[in-house]
Amino acid sequence: MAKVVLVTGVSRYLGGLYARRLSTDPSIERILGVDVVPPKHSIGRAEFVRADIRNPMIGRIMAQAGVDTVVHMNVIATPKDTGGRVTQKEINVIGTMQLLAACQKSESVSRLVVKSSAAVYGSSPRDPAMFTEDMNPKTLPRTGFGKDSVEVEGYVRGFSRRRPDVEITMLRLANVVGPSIHTAITDYFALPLVPVPLGFDARFQFVHEDDATAAMILATTGPPAGIVNVAGDGFLTVTQCTAIARRPVVPVPLQAAGVIGNIVRRSGLADFSSDQLTFLAFGRGLDTSRMRSVLEFEPHFTTRGAFEDYARHLRPAVPGVEGVGEVVSDAAGGTAAALSRVFDRIQP
Fold this sequence. Notes:
The chain has about 350 residues and is of the alpha/beta class.
């Protein structure tokens, strides 16, 4: 039973939301929220501790407080929020290594909960329809957050071998969306004109920010569950998402998507990596059987419901125009088909 909980990344949106929700549980005696900068939002009754998980000092904090449960929320998805890709990787990979080293030395830590990502499965045309937790990716993520998440999970597995007495739950969250969270995928669908890979209409799954937080709370206070996929029921395609978000689309050949992604990234409107662009072309599906049978969690929002709640808080791409997404997406579908036929003719 968790009594003294240490939460990393408490100054980030999802970490702060988690700390506030955990604060309502009377069985938790003390909550320590750790981050390098003070939070701008409420963290409930959590005590903020200014510390860098890349520094061995985190071990002394655990020992002094008698921490029994560590919740690692500080695996950062977007480099623009940290000052760049180098800092992002240091926090994600080096920070996780130092945190796990402190956990390994701790005599009081008995549970570790890690917020991971479905990005560890990568995305390719050879993927299965649904990834179970026991499956390996057909193509490993090569850059960015996905690659970091693979490394983080590798370090967690190594820790579990060295400390088999520590209960571990690792949640592989689908893309998190909601009215307040900002990620690469929410920034993408907020673009005034959404570039979509020509000839593709990938399937997506989403998890609402409230459901992601609730799943992390259950992983903290419930029985250990190992590795668990977390996603809302159902799927949405790229064109369905753009229609719901009321966004016009522009089809671009996949070969040129990297150039478009670089332009968008440099503009500061959204973060793009080559792996994210591949994801937009091929999508990903998660089997959530363990979420229900082992974690015993049932999301409140379906994939569609989560995305619709996010989209309700978006400004229209064209002020005063509703339904523009449906009209332009239909037109884009016809344009994409026509362009695809042209490309087929000119290919050797």
